[in-house]
From TrEMBL:
SUPFAM superfamilies: Metalloproteases ('zincins'), catalytic domain, Spermadhesin, CUB domain. Residues 217-338 form the CUB domain. This is Zinc metalloproteinase. GO terms for cellular component: extracellular region. It is found in: Secreted. One of its GO terms (molecular function) is metalloendopeptidase activity. The lineage of its organism: Eukaryota, Metazoa, Ecdysozoa, Nematoda, Chromadorea. Keywords: Disulfide bond, EGF-like domain, Glycoprotein, Hydrolase, Metal-binding, Metalloprotease, Protease, Secreted, Zinc. Residues 11-174 form the Peptidase M12A domain. GO terms for biological process: molting cycle, collagen and cuticulin-based cuticle; proteolysis.
Length: 338
């Protein structure tokens, strides 16, 4: 950290070098060095696709050295890259264990306060946030958020909605859609810069206007005054290998307008996968007012530590996301409206 007494809230900012550090015409060229393994190539391409799908930035493979500015992706010890565009050929290392998509023009949250944050709130679920126990010699937390229930949200393996929104602002993608004619997005979603008639949605929401549950496993659940429960099981009991991709199931609890939703974690089956950010599997419960923020996703929801934790949402909807890439996880949730 450059200034010991200063903390920033987001990853990208417009410093004295802006816009020279952004990629020209929002196009990012890369090529793979011979040292890059097949896994590194796969992971990098998946990460590039996430940003292409959710921004106006085009990330493409330049095998013929046509672009004067391009990224050389190679394998060296550690995960590192330059911040933004340097000019010419620049290096990006994806060493052993670098298996996330958090490389494009971002850097760790614990940096200068000259980062003015685009007026976005601090999201402890950002993929660029350090885990709670980073640097710990005894596995105890080295940092604790103001809301302690978010302790294990730190170190997330997922790109958050605010990560996506920040990068869209940094590259002026949000200017491409006229608010008068663009999609009217629910739950804090934003018009998609590649198609302003549809939305980019916060986690737990989908559909053209962010009013639906994401497709796939899971279901929409209608709360009543009496408590109901649902059980979710995902993964493979016999698996001992961490899968490259997560299995995800989306549930959306709805209550009548004006009612609050109470959610209680009754059971979570696997304590062996507890880790910062629940990087092997867990449950995310979104009971906060700002549905753009990452929900509670931490040790009590990826181990047995806080079974029977009760959360109350001020809204009449609560998305719940279960996810897994190691062993099998069984979750039992109780819910009702107040």
């Amino acid at each position: 950290m450059s200034d010991a007494n200063e903390r920033s809230k987001r990853q990208a900012f417009r410093d004295k070098n802006y816009p020279n550090t952004v990629w020209k015409n929002n196009r990012v060229a890369y090529f793979f060095d011979r040292s890059a393994s097949e896994r590194v190539r796969r992971v990098f391409k998946k990460g590039a696709q996430v940003w292409r799908d959710n921004t106006c930035i085009d990330i493409y493979e330049d095998t013929c050295a046509i672009s004067p500015d391009r990224i050389r992706v190679f394998m060296e010890e550690g995960c590192w890259s330059y911040l933004g565009r340097k000019g010419g050929e620049q290096n990006l290392s994806l060493g052993e264990g670098c298996d996330t998509e958090d490389w494009l023009d971002e850097f760790r949250l614990e940096s200068r306060s000259t980062n003015h944050n685009y007026d976005l709130p601090y999201d402890v679920g950002s993929i660029m946030h350090y885990g709670a126990t980073v640097g710990s010699a005894n596995k105890n937390p080295t940092m604790i958020p103001y809301d302690k229930l978010h302790t294990r949200t730190l170190g997330s393996p997922f790109v958050s909605f605010y990560d996506i929104l920040m990068l869209n602002k940094h590259y002026n993608c949000t200017d491409k859609c006229d608010p008068k004619t663009s999609a009217k997005c629910a739950m804090g979603g934003i018009p998609h810069p590649r198609d302003c008639s549809k939305c980019i949605c916060p986690g737990g929401y989908a559909g053209r206007f962010c009013k639906e549950r994401p497709s796939g496993c899971g279901q929409e659940l209608i709360a009543s005054h009496s408590a109901k429960t649902f059980t979710d099981s995902i993964g493979d009991k016999s698996s001992r290998t961490v899968r490259e991709d997560f299995i995800k199931c989306h549930y959306l609890i709805k209550a009548p307008p004006g009612k609050k939703v109470e959610v209680k974690l009754l059971h979570f089956s696997t304590s062996r996968i507890a880790a910062d950010g629940c990087k092997y599997g867990g449950v995310e419960i979104k009971t906060q007012v700002d549905q753009r923020l990452t929900g509670y996703r931490f040790v009590q929801f990826c181990s047995l530590d806080n079974v029977n934790t009760t959360l109350v949402s001020p809204l009449n909807v609560v998305p719940i996301i279960t996810f897994n890439r190691l062993y099998q996880t069984d979750t039992v949730i109780q819910y009702r409206y107040l």
